[in-house]
Design goal:
Elements: E1 11-12, E2 27-28, H1 34-37, H2 40-53, E3 64-67, H3 71-84, E4 92-96, E5 106-108, H4 114-122, E6 125-129, E7 136-137, E8 140-152, E9 157-161, E10 165-168, H5 184-187, E11 192-193, H6 201-230, E12 239-240, E13 242-250, E14 256-262, E15 270-276, E16 279-284, H7 286-303, H8 305-318, E17 323-328, E18 335-341, E19 346-348, E20 353-355, H9 369-374
Parallel strand pairs: 1-2, 2-12
Antiparallel strand pairs: 3-6, 4-5, 4-6, 7-8, 8-9, 8-10, 8-13, 9-20, 10-11, 13-14, 15-16, 17-18, 18-19
Bound molecules: adenosine-5'-diphosphate.
The site of adenosine-5'-diphosphate has 19 residues, from strand 4, strand 13 and strand 14.
Length: 380
């Protein structure tokens, strides 16, 4: 509504970030402060706080240092480990803060690398341990983009889309050596594809769900501060929800590693095709369409303000029994399932969301989450 709105809306969809202070009701698709919180430096800092408190629970994020502030610490800690274990030959990845799509990223073997000196002078960055043994498919390194719906911050409600995308490297992977360190098409994943692999899916899913929940928990305290300052309690204002893009790398042993969180994941369903040399055209991308349309559709379903009303009416007539529905999606292709357990407040809906409220038993067990509660993280 570039020229203003005539009447209030149920759902407001902002393109980039939360910015409209003239909304007094309804639901907005961005949380205040989310863009700031998931930048490389702030995310690393938020996860580090939790790593210090719960090192075992937060070992899904590579050890990271913030540059230039922690350059001395980085050098000293690397030296310390090297002194203890001379056979340790680490690789580090340097990522400028606020960069995206691989912009400005490079690999180094040693803190004394001359390129690091340049970065230190130019812009803030994160340097982190490089994961040398990623899982490969057809000899290629890949990472996973998952869509996560943060439906509410308080109480914390998180949904994970069952379908995501994978980006594959185009050059076969080799562990880093001084010779191949510059082959970015081997070390940075960069192409969208669907993934169908045959590993212990249940275990991987449960680890990924834990990773997502723990990452959101790490961001929550500061997100609440942003929320209270932009939407103070007791004054008319909207509630917020947000679709996040989680970039995850699987290690050879299938352990998921968090690479980054994107507050504004691309929802484009077309890609550029080179028709003839130098001539490009946007064409529909079926993979993007299948994954992303489902994510937006189910987000709108879950945020539908009339749903609660309908549910309450239905639950009265159903007498609060566990009910299972088999739905057929609009295209009539795949049956999707909506099941619910009104007693526990667990809701799985549509074909694409995996519910992951801490403490409930969704399809996959939630690993260390209950443990987190015992340690008091749940009260953050
Ligand atoms: P960007 O926002 O520029 O995409 P990312 O943090 O997602 O930055 O990194 C880009 C790519 O680099 C990732 O997709 C992944 O393939 C690779 N990468 C990033 N961090 C690591 C790491 N710690 N270990 C191994 N590979 C990494």
């Amino acid at each position: 509504f570039p020229f203003g709105r005539r009447s209030p809306c149920d759902i407001y969809w902002h393109g980039v970030s939360f910015h409209d202070n003239n909304i007094f009701s309804g639901q907005v698709n961005k949380f205040p402060g989310m863009t700031e919180m998931v930048r490389k430096i702030t995310l690393s800092r938020a996860v580090r706080i939790m790593q210090n408190l719960f090192p075992e629970e937060y070992n899904f994020y590579p050890r990271s240092w913030i540059l230039p502030d922690e350059f001395q610490l980085f050098t000293a800690q690397v030296q310390m480990v090297k002194d203890g274990d001379p056979s340790w030959k680490p690789t580090f990845i340097v990522k400028p803060d606020g960069g995206c799509q691989g912009d400005g990223i490079y690999l180094i073997k040693d803190p004394s690398d001359i390129r690091l000196a340049g970065t230190l002078q130019r812009r803030p960055a994160v340097v982190q341990e490089y994961i040398c043994k990623p899982l490969l498919i057809d000899k290629l390194k890949f990472d996973i983009r998952l869509y996560v719906l943060l439906k509410s911050l308080d109480p914390l409600e998180i949904y994970i889309a069952k379908d995501g995308l994978s980006r594959f490297c185009t050059e076969p992977y080799q562990e880093p050596t001084p010779k191949n360190l510059h082959h970015i098409f081997m070390h940075l994943t960069n192409y969208s594809l669907n993934i169908h692999s045959g590993v212990d899916i249940k275990k991987v899913w449960s680890d990924i769900i834990s990773l997502v929940i723990k990452t959101v928990i790490a961001l929550t305290p500061e997100l609440k501060v942003f929320y209270q300052s932009d939407i103070p309690a007791g004054r008319p204002g909207p509630t917020c929800f947000q679709i996040l893009g989680f970039d995850i790398l699987l290690m050879k042993n299938l352990k998921p590693i968090l690479l980054e969180v994107n507050a504004n994941p691309s929802m484009r369903i077309e890609h550029e095709q080179e028709l003839s040399p130098g001539v490009f055209e946007n064409v529909p991308s079926l993979v993007d369409e299948e994954v992303k349309v489902a994510v937006i559709r189910d987000t709108l379903r879950l945020m539908d303000p009339l749903r609660k009303k309908r549910e309450n009416q239905e639950s009265l007539s159903l007498g609060l029994n566990i009910q299972e529905y088999n739905l057929v999606d609009e295209a009539g292709k795949e049956p999707s399932q909506m099941c619910r357990d009104l007693g526990q407040g667990l809701l799985l809906m549509g074909s694409s969301w995996r519910e992951c409220q801490p403490g409930t038993e969704a399809e996959a067990p939630l690993g260390g989450v209950d443990h987190l509660h015992e340690n008091g993280v749940g009260s953050h």
